[in-house]
């Protein structure tokens, strides 16, 4: 708005044209009459009579006039300035009359000048220059005159500055009233997308009576519905998992009896049933773990512990199991990094990531694990990197592998024994500790998972979730 107003005002100044008096200018006949009278007075009465006439003209009509001969000499004997000589030189037989606003060094309204060329009956040429009183409403300066643009800008600043200040303040307040609630709504939507289903728009936001207020109320309604659906899904998974445990236990007893009484022909089938039952039991256990970390953590013991010792124990156990499948797990770098939280919950999360890497790394390769620290905005964080030497994951699936039951390739996951729950459980457990987990494909092949955990560690999002509900 400021730029448009300034540009419009400057354009108006630059569009000004040199002032030209209209043909019916009332000062034209007056200048001609004064000039003719002055010439006749001079020719019949000489310089004293001319001086007396011009004095009476100035005292009665406030018109200061001088009469020059064709050599630009003042006929009353007064010295002639260069400015008057310049004006006198501008009239001739073709243009006997001019009306102008000449430049003046003083500040204030300028006096218009009438310049008239007179040819007397005696054959001599005279030039009268009459300076009239300034007009009651002075005209704006001409384009190209000294200080005209600066003068115009000064006038514009005096007239437009209050408007610009008031308008700018109004525009700022209007933009702020629109942008600030939208930014708050955006932050709330981001919290919701990150898994904080208790995120809601502030009550002050909902008091608005405009469309933004309606949007905030609709957003809260949507968030409440999503929260209910997710909570129902969690309860369903927990209930189904608990209900399946009893039939599986009875199936295990019946399977043991069948193995004792069965013959060699049915033993392979019974072994297959046992393996499938074991996989189902493992999946149910993971579902219960996922339900536990999703539903609440108030009963989980928290303490200050060192990630170094926890990680070394996990690596030893994983390496021992991996060597049966011609694989290995190696700790390539380790630092002492303390954090606050649940060693069991966080250890289970890291173990799920390491076991997932062992399942997918190629035979005769090793999974590389490192524990270092890094700084982020002045805060120290623990960085755990788990890198395998498998085929990796398509780039479009790098974020999806942390969702429950997501499988990049069903055939590959069946072959490796994966259920699609390990990384989901690890993600939620790490988030409860205020950390983050991400995956990327290594340059030389394989998948690299990075876990970042702050030193203070624990965050109780679920407790806040319960309170809000």
Structure description:
It is a single chain. The chain has 469 residues and is an alpha+beta fold. It folds into three domains: 20-138, Beta-Lactamase (2-Layer Sandwich), CATH 3.30.450.160; 194-295, Orthogonal Bundle (Helix Hairpins); 301-468, Histidine kinase-like ATPase, C-terminal domain (Heat Shock Protein 90). The protein contains twelve helices and eleven strands. It has helices at residues 2-14, 27-61, 82-88, 148-193, 203-206, 211-261, 267-295, 307-322, 343-360, 410-416, 422-432, 461-468; strands at residues 64-69, 97-100, 113-119, 125-131, 303-306, 328-334, 338-341, 366-376, 379-387, 436-441, 447-454. It is rod-shaped, with a radius of gyration of 48 Å. The model is unreliable at 16-23, 141-147 and 460-469 (pLDDT under 50).
The main β sheet shows up as: 5 strands, mixed
Work out the strand percent.
Answer: 15-25%
Helix content: 40-55%
Can you say what the CATH homologous superfamily of the largest domain is?
Answer: Histidine kinase-like ATPase, C-terminal domain
Q: Enumerate the strands of the largest sheet in spatial order, edge to edge or round the barrel.
A: 6-8-9-11-10
Globular, elongated, flat, extended or rod-shaped: what is the shape?
A: rod-shaped
Count of distinct structural domains: 3
Corresponding CATH architecture of the largest domain = 2-Layer Sandwich
Element-level helix/strand string: HHEHEEEHHHHEHEEHEEHHEEH
Q: What structural category characterises the helix and strand content? A: alpha+beta
- For the terminal residues, how far apart are their CA atoms? 48 Å
Number of separate helices: 12
């Amino acid at each position: 708005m400021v730029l448009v107003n300034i540009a419009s005002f400057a354009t108006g100044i630059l569009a000004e044209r040199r002032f030209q008096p209209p043909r019916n200018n009332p000062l034209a006949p007056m200048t001609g009459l004064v000039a003719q009278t002055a010439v006749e007075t001079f020719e019949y009465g000489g310089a004293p009579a001319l001086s007396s006439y011009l004095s009476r003209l100035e005292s009665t009509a406030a018109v200061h006039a001088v009469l020059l001969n064709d050599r630009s000499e003042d006929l009353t004997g007064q010295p002639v300035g260069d400015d008057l000589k310049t004006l006198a030189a501008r009239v001739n037989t073709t243009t006997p009359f001019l009306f102008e606003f000449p430049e003046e060094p003083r500040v204030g309204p300028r006096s218009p000048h009438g310049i008239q060329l007179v040819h007397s009956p005696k054959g001599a040429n005279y030039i009268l220059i009459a300076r009239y009183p300034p007009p009651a409403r002075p005209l704006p300066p001409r384009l190209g005159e000294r200080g005209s643009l600066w003068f115009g800008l000064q006038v514009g600043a005096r007239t437009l500055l209050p408007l610009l200040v008031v308008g700018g303040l109004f525009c700022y307040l209007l933009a702020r009233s629109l942008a600030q609630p939208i930014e708050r709504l955006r932050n709330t939507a981001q919290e919701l997308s990150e898994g904080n289903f208790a995120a809601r728009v502030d009550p002050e936001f909902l008091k608005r009576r405009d469309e933004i207020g309606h949007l905030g109320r609709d957003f809260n309604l949507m968030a409440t519905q999503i929260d209910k659906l997710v909570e129902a899904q969690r309860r369903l998974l927990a209930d189904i998992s608990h209900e399946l445990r009893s039939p599986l236990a009875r199936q295990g007893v019946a399977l043991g009896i069948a193995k004792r009484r069965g013959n060699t022909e049915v033993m392979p089938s019974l072994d297959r049933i046992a393996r499938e039952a074991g996989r189902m039991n493992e999946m149910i256990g993971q579902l219960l773990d996922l339900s536990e970390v999703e539903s609440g953590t108030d009963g989980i013991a928290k303490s200050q512990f060192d990630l170094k010792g926890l990680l070394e124990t996990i690596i030893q156990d994983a390496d021992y199991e991996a060597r049966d499948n011609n694989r290995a797990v190696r700790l390539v770098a380790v630092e002492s990094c303390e954090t606050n939280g649940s060693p069991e919950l966080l250890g289970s999360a890291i173990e799920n990531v390491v076991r997932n890497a062992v399942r997918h790394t190629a035979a005769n390769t090793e999974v590389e694990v490192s524990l270092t620290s890094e700084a982020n905005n002045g805060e120290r964080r623990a960085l755990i990197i788990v890198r395998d030497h498998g085929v990796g994951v398509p780039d479009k699936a790098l974020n999806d592998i942390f969702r429950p039951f997501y499988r990049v390739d069903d055939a590959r996951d069946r072959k490796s024994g994966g259920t699609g729950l390990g990384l989901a459980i690890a993600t939620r457990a790490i988030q409860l500790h205020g950390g983050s987990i991400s995956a990327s494909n290594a340059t030389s092949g394989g998948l690299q998972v990075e876990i970042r955990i702050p030193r203070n560690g624990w965050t109780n999002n679920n407790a806040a979730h319960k309170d809000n509900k």
